[in-house]
Amino acid sequence: MKKIFRRFLLIAILAGLVLGVAVLAVNAVMVNTTRDAIVDGETAGTFGADCILVLGAGVRNDGSPSDMLRDRIDTGMSLYLSDAAPKLLMSGDHGREGYDEVNVMRDRALAAGAESADVFMDHAGFSTYDSLYRARDVFGVKRVIIVTQSYHLPRALYIARSLGLEAVGVSADLYTYFGQAGRDIREMAARTKDMLYCWFKPTPTYLGEAIPISGNGEATLG
Q1: For the residues 6-30, what does the mean pLDDT come to?
Q2: Fewer CB near the terminus (10 Å): N or C of the chain?
Q3: Which residues of 78-90 are buried (b: 16+ CB within 10 A; e: fewer)?
Q4: Would you say residue 144 has pLDDT above 90?
Q5: What is the mean pLDDT of the segment spanning 213-220?
Q6: Does the structure show a pLDDT above 80 at 76?
């Protein structure tokens, strides 16, 4: 029994080491292959993007955006107001009653001076992969500026490129966020998962009819 236990223990250790090396390798690939696409606002303004894609994040119980979401919206608005792209695509979770990221994002953008027709909402942006897949297939986006925090940008840019999108990313790190160490650890696992998604390209949770980003964002109200 002791020999069997030792054998299984050795196998478990070796499997853990292989998995750990694989996760580190995936993370290195995503970070290193997207580094050149992370730019500042001025550079993003010369990219000729169809839209600025602002990725969703948490909303508080009182309906206000979390700190990270607030900074993503404000960064996206800064780019929009500087004419980096003509449209905003707010992509987040609006998949259940009582929780709505995208209307919170839209409302803050309108309050900051965005034109209503220029603000599109993707109500089914349940994941980074879903948001980018739907940006391409539902909204007809080909060139995109992605706005999110810096730890999230390599994965978002890697997914975009794997889906055939031309993309640059702008960091929304306006402050230091509590709990970032935990997010960094979770991001390593998420990168590994999404690399598999990029290989197999499953269909997102929802697709639906086309809503061209060149049209009127009020078509996405709801």
Answers
A1: 78
A2: N
A3: bbbeeebbebbbb
A4: yes
A5: 97
A6: yes
For the chain, the DSSP string reads -HHHHHHHHHHHHHHHHHHHHHHHHHHHHHHHHHGGGB--HHHHTTS--SEEEEEP--B-TTSPBPHHHHHHHHHHHHHHHTTS-S-EEEE-B--BTTB-HHHHHHHHHHHTT--GGGEEEETB--SHHHHHHHHHHTT--SEEEEEE-TTTHHHHHHHHHHTT-EEEEEE---S--TTHHHHHHHHHHHHHHHHHHHHH-PPPS---S---TTS-GGGG--
The per-residue pLDDT for 5 is: 65
Are the beta carbons of 124 and 132 closer than 8 angstroms?
Answer: no
Mean pLDDT of the chain: 93
Which of 93, 85, 70, 157 lies closest to 119, judged by CA? 85
Measure the CA angle with vertex 177, ends 66 and 99; round to 5°: 20
Q: Using CA of residue 109, residue 80, residue 87, residue 129, what is the dihedral sign?
A: negative
Tokens representing 30?
Answer: 């995503």
More confident residue, 211 or 13: 211
